[in-house]
Each structure stands twice: as C-alpha cells, then as structure tokens.
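Internal ticket - ligand job 391, flavin-adenine dinucleotide:
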Amino acid sequence: MGLSEEQRALVGTVRDFTRREVAPVASAMDRADAYPADLVGRMRELGFFGATISEEYGGSGAGAETYALLIEELAKGWMSLAGVLNTHLLVAHMIEVSGAPEQRERFLPAMARGERRAALCITEPDAGTDVAAIKTRAVRDGDDYVVNGRKQFITNARSASVYAIVCKTDETADPPRRGISLLLGEKRPGLNVTRDIPKLGYHGVETCEVAFEDYRTPATNLLGGVEGEGFRQVMGGLELGRINVAARAVGVARAALEAAARYAQERRTFGKPIAEHQAIQQKLADMATQVKAAHLLTMDAARKKDRGERADLDAGMAKLFASETCLTVATEAMRIHGGVGYTQDLPVERYFRDAPLMIIGEGTNEIQRQVIARSLLRNYPSGDFLFEAGL
Ligand SMILES: Cc1cc2nc3c(=O)[nH]c(=O)nc-3n(C[C@H](O)[C@H](O)[C@H](O)COP(=O)(O)OP(=O)(O)OC[C@H]3O[C@@H](n4cnc5c(N)ncnc54)[C@H](O)[C@@H]3O)c2cc1C
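stdout (structure tokens):
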C-alpha cells in the first residue's frame, strides 16, 4: 500500500493497542454500555485526540489518509472508540480551518492533549438531514450570545468540555442556511444534558439530548468572528467526518470477515470444514472483495483530501460503499456462524448491531447518493468522471 515509515509506526501502535487492550474487553464493555473511561484515557496517552491537529498546536498533524488508517484499526477492535474521536477531531478541524488565530490558540492545544474533548451539536428533534431547518437560536446580548434550543443525538455530550453549537443567528435569512452560525461553548449554566438515548449498538459512547436554556457564551466564541458562516463551516468539516465513517465501516467489516474466515475453517459439517463448501466460499470471496474495494475507496478519498483537492464526491462514495459493505459483510459473517453468531458468546452479533450506524451517521446514505449524483452531474456532465478527473 506504500505507507510511509511514520504511517506504519502509527498503524503498528494502534494495532497493538486494539489487540492487547481493546479486543479482549470490547464485547463485555459493549454489554455493560458504560463510558470506557480507562480506554479513553489510554487513547489520550497515545496522542489520538491530537491526531489531525497541526503540530503547531501540539497535535500530530496527521493527514486524512493516516487518520483513516488509525480509525480503521481502532474500529476493528471496537467501533465505539472511533466514535469518541470523530466529533472531537471534526470540531478541531473546523476551528483550525475557520477559527480566528486567537480561537485556535485558546482551544486547540488542550484539545490536542485530550484534556478538553469536543461535541458537535447539529441535530435537533425536528432537524437532522435538513440542517437548515434547525430552530436553536442565538441572540446577541452585549458581549454574549444567548442560546435557546434543543439538540439530539449528541455524541460525547457528557464528557465534552467544548461544544460546537450550530444555531440560527438570523431567522429571516434567505436561503435559511445563510442565517446559521457556529458558536463554541463551554460547560456552564444553561447547558444541560437532559437524556442518554438508548441504542441498538455503538454502546459505551454517550449519545444524548442537550438543552440550551438562556445559555450564554461570549461573542468572541463565534467561529471565525462572522455570523452566517456556520453551514459552510460544518459542511467543510463533514468531508473528514465522512472519511472517518467510511474507515469505521471498513474496520468493522474487516473484523467480521476475519471472524467468519476463522470460524469457517474450524467448524465442520458433513465431514469437512464449512470453508470447503462452495456456498461458504462464495460468501467469503464476495465479502473480501467488497472489503478491499471499500478500503481502497476510503484511502483514495483521504489521499485526495490530503492533496488539497475537493473530495466531497470521493468521500461520499467511500462512505456510501463502505457502510453498505459493512452491513452486508456483518450479516454474512453472522450467517456463516450459524446459531452461535446470534449469541453474545462471540463478537459477530456486536458487529451486526454496530454496522447500521454507519449508514446513518455523517449524512444518511440516501443523502450521500444525492450528494454524489449532484456532484457528478455538475462537475462531470459526460458521466465519465474517472477519465475527466485524471483516473
Ligand atoms: C448514534 C448516533 C450518533 C449521532 N451523533 C451525532 C452528533 O454527535 N452530533 C449531531 O449533530 N448529530 C448526531 N447524530 C445525528 C445524525 O447525524 C442524524 O440522525 C442523521 O443526520 C439523520 O437525521 P435524522 O435522524 O433527523 O433523520 P431524517 O433527516 O428525519 O431522515 C429520515 C429518513 O428520511 C431520509 N431523507 C431525509 N431527507 C431526504 C431527502 N432529501 N431525500 C431522500 N431521503 C431523505 C433519510 O435518509 C432517512 O432515511 C447521531 C445519530 C446517531 C444515531
């Protein structure tokens, strides 16, 4: 794959960590559904919370490709841990790209050390895919903004100390997205985590409802210092978010494929390992081919982003294909395991429960398809985007 020595070293560190410290406890921790404070502490020590933050602010300055490799390995051990990193590094990315120099100095070093962790508050009870329909309002009052509204499905809501709050500063703006701003907030009165939302999988990670009631944050916390830029700032960050979700999906799919391949060689029916039955071989061949394609698409999108090129089409394709692959491969892995695949004795049932999140997170796959089609038609009306984009 042509990895640099630095990338190889990082992948080695993550692989070591997940093999020794994560994989042995992941299923039990998933069942307990408790926040994995010790593992998060180890991720902090290993510098994961600063992975993509520039060295200038104390991070490792890893590009999207290296980041995707890290996430893939981590998710192979336990997808939830990769989720803890995602919104934190997304918010850091937004601050680094769009923040004023003073904001970068104030937030990024502590975030790179993992001392302060971030939550991204976009989704609301009445607005998910349709971000421009959010109702949370921020009104300027002297040197502060006063925020009122409710957010839903907020990852890291309890353990975060930096909140990127997507809100309306101008409710009359046309189109409505031009009235959206991004405020950085800290934990103080008026910000209340009101509920932990129980989930099918992705256990251990906080997914919460957050209420803002006359919550004050200084006007100096308006990202970039300009109102109406929030929608653009968030959408810019989602490119990296989609690469993260694609890499998570590849990680879970790899874990499911490995489990299935091992089990197929151990389990015997009709006098031979099930791996020698053609039906099982066909499944394994399809699974492996899809996993490799998903990995390559993800790496390709990440490299394009690292070259400074616009990668929304590529990140969307990677996220779409990798997440659908993950769902298929996790299901097939369970089928290969027969009855035992349906039990909590083996981790395949966890892969099966974790997989559907990736078809929803960072934009559902229905929206992904729209982003892909729109970008294709706008930029490559001939449809031959592979040739036109230089293959
Ligand atoms: C575990 C978990 C963690 C999350 N973490 C965060 C977080 O940290 N921060 C945050 O802000 N959000 C978070 N989310 C929210 C997530 O981003 C949204 O759930 C997602 O964007 C979809 O929004 P929705 O649930 O409101 O679905 P809706 O927007 O109501 O969509 C419902 C259905 O309609 C489809 N649909 C909607 N519009 C269209 C269209 N134009 N064309 C075709 N189909 C359409 C969708 O694809 C979907 O199938 C999280 C969600 C989960 C489940």
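Auto-summary: The first strand starts at residue 118 and ends at 121. The two ends are 18 Å apart (CA to CA).
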